[in-house]
Every structure is written in structure tokens, then in C-alpha cells.
């Protein structure tokens, strides 16, 4: 199971999930570092991911220097750098203002078209789900049944 999490699935968090004391580059490299990937390859994949999300010029900055939308792009770049088959995105744009949120939705659609990743996108916003998703599952607002073994 650990191997699957390390190689097949990458996560983009609701609240950015960035290390405040690490640069943008170090934050993006983190998933590859945990995997034990060598430094040269980590750096190459990180720079490619930063280019994809439009943050290459911010590589040496700390997260506090970035806007909320840019911080979320760092989280997205970290997920992309691992080249995982599946991106699990747990309400990644919910903390962003409406304008930046729409821009990030458009950016995600562009990246999906280019990279052809499987994206599991969790959202409480039906409009966002309709814009981004091609398959949707609506879960009930409350627990219907709890089975205990």
C-alpha cells in the first residue's frame, strides 16, 4: 500500500500543505525526496513541473512570498513532479478568492488536456464539479448507515 501511495497517487491539499521554511523548489521536490529519487532527477522534474504551472521564476522564493493562488500552484507542481498516474485533489481551490479559483480551474483543465492524468477532485461546489468533472459522484450530506464489525 505504501508503494502505491509513493508512486501511483499524488495529493493536492485544501490548505496548500507547504513547508514554510522551504523554498518553492524544495517544496516541489519533497515527494520525490521521500521516494529516494536522486538529486539531479528531482531537480529536473521539479523545474519541469514549475514550468507547467507558470512558477519557474518563483523557484527560490519562500511560500509566504506568494499569493494564495501561487501557493496552490506549488502544491499542484509538487503533485505533478512525482508523475503519479492519479491526482487526488481534496477541495484544492476552496481557500481561494473567486477570480483566482476560476483561473486555477481553467489551469487544471489545461493541464488535464495536456497530461492526461486521472484526477479525483473533491468539491462541495456543484458549479466547480460541473466545470471540471466528466464523471461525478454525489455523496449524501449525512451518514446513512454505519456498519461495525
TrEMBL record:
Residue span, ABC transporter domain: 1-149
GO molecular function list: ATP binding; ATP hydrolysis activity
Domain of life (superkingdom): Bacteria
Coiled coil residues, start to end: none
Gene3D superfamilies listed in its UniProt record: P-loop containing nucleotide triphosphate hydrolases
InterPro entries: ABC_osmolyte_uptake_ATP-bind, ABC_transporter-like_ATP-bd, ABC_transporter-like_CS, P-loop_NTPase
PROSITE patterns noted in UniProt: ABC_TRANSPORTER_1, ABC_TRANSPORTER_2
PANTHER family given in the database record: GLYCINE BETAINE/PROLINE BETAINE TRANSPORT SYSTEM ATP-BINDING PROTEIN PROV (PTHR43869), GLYCINE BETAINE_PROLINE BETAINE TRANSPORT SYSTEM ATP-BINDING PROTEIN PROV (PTHR43869:SF1)
Name under which the protein is recorded: Glycine/betaine ABC transporter
Organism encoding this protein: Heteroscytonema crispum UCFS10
Native organism taxonomy: Bacteria, Bacillati, Cyanobacteriota, Cyanophyceae, Nostocales
